[in-house]
Specification:
By secondary structure, the chain is of the alpha/beta class. It is built from 20 helices and 31 strands. The longest helix is centred in the first third of the chain and has 17 residues. It is globular. The two termini are 30 Å apart. Bound molecules: adenosine-5'-monophosphate-propyl ester.
């Protein structure tokens, strides 16, 4: 990033001006949690007051923050526990009978209603089981579970004990799981027998076994029963959760919430960067919780007494951590947690869920909205969605057509759509409309959240004014910001802080309009965004060259109508072999095995050579042009111009 090559990439994505405007209705504005004066609040006052209001402290903090570039600390001197804030305090204040979440299984008629009191009992029981396995404050616990009730329970149990967790998304392969669990030095791995995917069992334990065998730090594998299917058993390492749970106490007094320091590690979340190795993003206790709870309260306008909130993300990603688990539970929300996919058994599954539970707030991703657009509005029309009063979008820029469709067909032509920009690293939403205040523009994430100092810079670190474009930066720290990359302080510095010294570089291009509204333009580094998942081109390239047939590989993204971006791999084979459809199939499967199905290239182009500069550097910019089927950019530095003509011919044959 920062090179002219990537600058060009950002400029390519500039969209034309979108003219439609949607001011908030007087009715919505009158009842909104955030009123216009929120933007006038002073930075220190905002985070200080929110810190005291949204969170209960065992010991109050005595200093708001410390900032020694690039490290910040927040709420210094404070003691608290995240599980206490998300569960126990609600039961203590008399809300034990309130529903924390409705769990909807993928198979029909597998449903559970979990109140805050139920949640407390389950979390305490789970924590006691972990304790009996030797887990205590500081023990790293890896979690490889699908969207079952035990996933939030396990995370909260870790938080209760002060044991940092690392959830690895159920779609990752054994190798990807082992890489992450090893880097984290996990001592316990929690998994389940099987999950479900469109009605078929998904062998999670089998994958976890393979990963555990390659993760020397893992001593025990704790297996939750979900499908009840037969799974292989490793005596000595495997432990059935049910066997220990039946004798474990669910009395909160048997396992009190561990008082944690504000800056104690809460969890790691791995995300893809610009090298083959994923980054373990560090999030700590107090700042993260304040960030998640505060943004959730104002941006989703949460009314704990009447709203039913449904975020369709997977808890295995940051969106699920902040906006299914920690933010909503801290705010005593009633949520829906759904195990399955939107089109099983039919394409109206989400709308059926929204109708049945009376969902009022829905948070999803543009890629899902575009799939629903393709399937047609008739699926939503079959259901009563009249309770929906607010819609959210996250994960990638939302195209105005999808935005309008979402508002019209899901939001009854009136629900505000909040397009929320943030990242694994930011912990919580940083750029967003506020639904009772902002005049919405389809496709714009609008303004920095109060207490956030975001700007757009050109390549020489000058702030661009209204009408300009460049790189998104954050100029001041914020409570839920990452505290670094696990085991890699140098990468933390070089990746985020060296490009615009003193500022955090997000890796996204952005444009700022005449009103000061931000329009996000996509990544400006070698990271793709496929269905809202961040995937590194280089991670896929190294998976490809790991295959014995492959000599070289270059990967890039091309625009895709549904998934935002699709992965294109250009590959040369050893000995100049020509390849075949079977080889292509095998290479795709190999990437699936190395990383997971989400990383499988949509297109593989086998070619005799890759375009390189005279010094041997692969010119990805030109491959992007080929993948997008557009005119080639500057080719003067190319060592052999004939190579490209051949690649174009191969790509067009696909
Ligand atoms: O490129 C931006 C895009 O997703 C990246 C962050 O990905 P991840 O860490 O996986 O977190 C996804 C969920 C927060 C960003 O760098 N992105 C996310 N939300 C938006 C977005 N791009 C444009 N508009 C958004 N609302």
């Amino acid at each position: 990033m920062g090179s002219s090559e990537q600058g060009e990439h950002a400029i390519h994505m500039m969209s034309t001006e979108e003219e439609r405007r949607y001011p908030p209705s007087a009715e919505f504005a009158a009842q909104a949690n955030a009123k216009a004066d929120i933007y006038e609040r002073d930075f220190d006052e905002f985070w200080e007051t929110e810190g005291r209001t949204r969170v209960s402290w065992f010991e109050p903090f005595n200093k708001l923050y410390e900032w020694e570039m690039p490290y910040s600390k927040w709420y210094l001197g404070g003691k608290l526990n995240v599980c206490y804030n998300c569960v126990d305090r609600h039961v203590e204040s008399g809300a034990g009978d309130k529903v924390a979440f409705y769990w909807e299984g993928e198979l029909e008629d597998t449903r559970r209603t979990v109140t805050y009191a139920n949640l407390q009992s389950e979390v305490v029981r789970f924590a006691n089981v972990l304790k009996s396995l030797g887990v205590k404050k500081g023990t790293p616990v890896a979690i490889y579970l699908g969207m079952i009730p035990e996933l939030p329970v396990a995370m909260l149990a870790c938080a209760r004990l002060g044991a940092p967790h690392c959830v690895i998304f159920g779609g990752f392969s054994a190798e990807a799981l082992a890489d992450r669990a090893s880097d984290f030095e996990a001592e316990i791995l929690i998994t389940q027998d099987e999950g479900y995917r469109r009605g078929k069992p998904l062998a999670l334990k089998k994958i976890a076994d393979e990963a555990a065998a390659n993760t020397p730090s893992v001593q025990k594998v704790l297996v939750v029963s979900h499908s009840g299917g037969d799974v292989a058993w490793n005596e000595g390492t495997d432990i059935r959760y049910d066997d220990l749970a039946k004798d474990a106490s669910s009395d909160p007094a048997s396992c009190p919430c561990e008082p944690m320091d504000s800056e104690d590690l809460l969890f790691l979340m791995y995300t893809s960067g610009t090298t083959a190795k994923p980054k373990g993003i560090i999030h700590t206790t107090a700042g993260y919780l304040v960030g998640a709870a505060t943004t959730h309260y104002y941006i989703f306008d949460l009314k704990a007494d009447s709203d039913v909130y449904f975020c369709t993300a997977d808890i295995g990603w940051i969106t699920g951590h902040s906006y299914i688990l920690y933010g909503p539970l801290a705010n005593q929300a009633t949520s829906v947690i759904f195990e399955g996919t939107p089109d099983f058994p039919d394409k109206d599954r989400w709308w059926d869920i929204c109708e049945r539970y009376g969902v009022t707030i829905l948070y999803t991703a543009p890629t899902a909205i575009r799939s629903h657009m393709k399937w047609g509005p008739e699926y939503a029309q079959k259901h009563d969605l009249s309770k929906i009063r607010l819609l959210g979008s996250v994960g990638e820029p939302i195209n105005p057509e999808a935005w309008i469709w979402y508002r019209d067909h899901i939001g009854g032509g009136k629900a505000p759509v909040v397009d929320t920009w943030w990242q694994t690293e930011t912990g919580s939403i940083l750029i967003t409309p506020l639904p009772g205040i902002t005049t919405l523009k389809p496709g714009s994430a609008s303004k920095p959240f109060p207490g956030i100092d975001a700007a757009v810079y050109d390549e020489s670190s000058n702030e661009v004014g209204p009408g300009g474009g460049g790189y998104l930066v954050l100029r001041k720290p914020w409570p839920s910001m990452l505290r670094g990359i696990h085991n890699d302080p140098n990468r933390f510095l070089s990746n985020y802080w060296s490009l615009f010294p003193g500022n955090y570089a997000a890796g996204d291009g952005a444009r700022i309009d005449e009103d000061g509204d931000f329009w996000l333009l996509g990544r400006v580094d070698d990271v793709m965004n496929v269905s809202g998942h961040r995937i590194s081109t280089i991670e896929i390239e190294s998976a490809l060259v790991d295959h014995p047939l492959v000599a070289e590989a270059a990967v890039c993204g091309r625009a895709d109508e549904i998934t935002g971006q699709a992965i294109v791999a250009f590959v040369t084979l050893k000995g100049g072999a020509k390849g075949s459809d079977d080889v292509i199939k095998e290479l795709r499967a190999h990437v699936g095995k190395k990383i997971g199905p989400i990383a499988r290239p949509a297109t593989v182009v086998i070619t005799q050579e890759l375009p390189k500069t005279r010094s041997g550097k692969i010119m990805r910019r030109l491959l992007r042009d080929v993948a997008e089927n557009r005119a080639l950019g500057d080719t003067t530095t190319l060592a052999d111009p004939n190579v490209l003509a051949e690649i174009q011919r191969q790509a067009q044959a696909k």
